[in-house]
């Protein structure tokens, strides 16, 4: 299975996620006059984080994906619990496994330095996810921006919509389908989210019981990806 094909699916998948965002009109030029320094503020932060630890690039893609699965791509995952709602960070698919928040915080600070109060965290997360993929050697794409940050998060939404590590293939497939994503998208996103260390010959890692992903034991996908992609 060619890593390049996976990269192409990733591209369409992240575009599909963007299309699924419910906030009005997104466009690539949304901040072109209000924050022209946006992209050059975010990228060095992501680059430096990945230079320190490659895995965090995959973690940021996973943050974006787990954010988008609950209420759309609205940065709800970044919110801590408040008196009025329980946030998403401790929901089963996230508790103890979501990481990379400090990189998004640092990118937000860098953006605030160049244009305070303009750019949403949801957009910064979307840009940082793209930058991570590019820095790790994947494809590039233009990030459509103009998202608004949510003021609420949903613990139950995270539990119900994001596939937990124990999901089997049927549930994985239906949870991705609920977001308008195909099995190919699922493989691309899951594989990217778990591409921690190089497997021999670019084989990728994936999520889910099917793939025996239990903590440390992540198996290379030599057999599983071709089976899924053939369906
Ligand atoms: C999150 O994980 C911690 C550590 O395993 C556990 O103590 C806590 O109860 C979990 N929180 C929820 C809401 O499940
Ligand atoms: C799918 O989800 C349902 C409802 O949460 C659960 O009862 C069932 O065991 C799950 N099946 C698989 C294959 O994960």
UniProtKB/TrEMBL annotation:
<feature type="binding site">
    <location>
        <position position="67"/>
    </location>
    <ligand>
        <name>Ca(2+)</name>
    </ligand>
</feature>
<feature type="domain" description="Plant heme peroxidase family profile">
    <location>
        <begin position="25"/>
        <end position="198"/>
    </location>
</feature>
<dbReference type="InterPro" id="IPR010255">
    <property type="entry name" value="Haem_peroxidase_sf"/>
</dbReference>
<keyword id="KW-0349">Heme</keyword>
<dbReference type="InterPro" id="IPR002016">
    <property type="entry name" value="Haem_peroxidase"/>
</dbReference>
<keyword id="KW-0479">Metal-binding</keyword>
<dbReference type="GO" id="GO:0140825">
    <property type="term" value="F:lactoperoxidase activity"/>
</dbReference>
<keyword id="KW-0376">Hydrogen peroxide</keyword>
<feature type="binding site">
    <location>
        <position position="88"/>
    </location>
    <ligand>
        <name>Ca(2+)</name>
    </ligand>
</feature>
<feature type="site" description="Transition state stabilizer">
    <location>
        <position position="62"/>
    </location>
</feature>
<dbReference type="GO" id="GO:0020037">
    <property type="term" value="F:heme binding"/>
</dbReference>
<protein>
    <recommendedName>
        <fullName>Peroxidase 1</fullName>
        <ecNumber>1.11.1.7</ecNumber>
    </recommendedName>
</protein>
<feature type="binding site">
    <location>
        <position position="72"/>
    </location>
    <ligand>
        <name>Ca(2+)</name>
    </ligand>
</feature>
<dbReference type="GO" id="GO:0005576">
    <property type="term" value="C:extracellular region"/>
</dbReference>
<dbReference type="GO" id="GO:0006979">
    <property type="term" value="P:response to oxidative stress"/>
</dbReference>
<feature type="active site" description="Proton acceptor">
    <location>
        <position position="66"/>
    </location>
</feature>
<feature type="signal peptide">
    <location>
        <begin position="1"/>
        <end position="24"/>
    </location>
</feature>
<dbReference type="InterPro" id="IPR000823">
    <property type="entry name" value="Peroxidase_pln"/>
</dbReference>
<dbReference type="Pfam" id="PF00141">
    <property type="entry name" value="peroxidase"/>
</dbReference>
<keyword id="KW-0575">Peroxidase</keyword>
<dbReference type="InterPro" id="IPR019794">
    <property type="entry name" value="Peroxidases_AS"/>
</dbReference>
<dbReference type="GO" id="GO:0046872">
    <property type="term" value="F:metal ion binding"/>
</dbReference>
<keyword id="KW-0106">Calcium</keyword>
<keyword id="KW-0560">Oxidoreductase</keyword>
<keyword id="KW-1015">Disulfide bond</keyword>
<keyword id="KW-0408">Iron</keyword>
<feature type="binding site">
    <location>
        <position position="76"/>
    </location>
    <ligand>
        <name>Ca(2+)</name>
    </ligand>
</feature>
<feature type="binding site">
    <location>
        <position position="70"/>
    </location>
    <ligand>
        <name>Ca(2+)</name>
    </ligand>
</feature>
<comment type="similarity">
    <text>Belongs to the peroxidase family.</text>
</comment>
<feature type="binding site">
    <location>
        <position position="163"/>
    </location>
    <ligand>
        <name>substrate</name>
    </ligand>
</feature>
<feature type="disulfide bond">
    <location>
        <begin position="35"/>
        <end position="115"/>
    </location>
</feature>
<dbReference type="GO" id="GO:0042744">
    <property type="term" value="P:hydrogen peroxide catabolic process"/>
</dbReference>
<feature type="binding site">
    <location>
        <position position="74"/>
    </location>
    <ligand>
        <name>Ca(2+)</name>
    </ligand>
</feature>
<keyword id="KW-0732">Signal</keyword>
<feature type="disulfide bond">
    <location>
        <begin position="68"/>
        <end position="73"/>
    </location>
</feature>
């Amino acid at each position: 299975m060619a890593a390049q094909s996976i990269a192409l699916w990733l591209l369409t998948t992240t575009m599909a996620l963007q299309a699924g965002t419910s906030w009005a009109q997104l466009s690539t030029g949304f901040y072109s006059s209000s924050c022209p320094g946006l992209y050059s503020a975010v990228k060095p932060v992501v680059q430096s984080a990945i230079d320190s630890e490659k895995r965090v690039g995959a973690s940021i893609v996973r943050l974006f994906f787990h954010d988008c699965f609950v209420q759309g791509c609205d940065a709800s995952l970044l919110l801590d619990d408040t008196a009025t709602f329980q946030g998403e960070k401790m929901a089963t698919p996230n508790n103890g496994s979501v990481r990379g928040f400090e990189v998004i915080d640092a990118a937000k600070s860098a953006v605030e330095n160049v244009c305070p109060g303009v750019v949403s965290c949801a957009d910064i997360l979307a840009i940082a996810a793209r930058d991570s993929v590019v820095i790790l050697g994947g494809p590039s794409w233009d990030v459509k921006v103009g998202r608004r940050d949510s003021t609420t998060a949903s613990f139950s939404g995270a539990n119900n919509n994001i596939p937990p590590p124990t999901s089997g293939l049927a549930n994985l497939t239906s949870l991705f389908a609920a977001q308008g994503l195909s099995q190919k998208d699922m493989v691309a996103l899951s594989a990217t989210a778990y591409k921690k260390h190089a497997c021999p010959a670019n084989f990728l890692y994936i999520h889910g019981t099917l793939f025996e992903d239990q903590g440390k034991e992540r198996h290379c996908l030599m057999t599983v990806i071709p089976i899924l992609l053939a369906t």
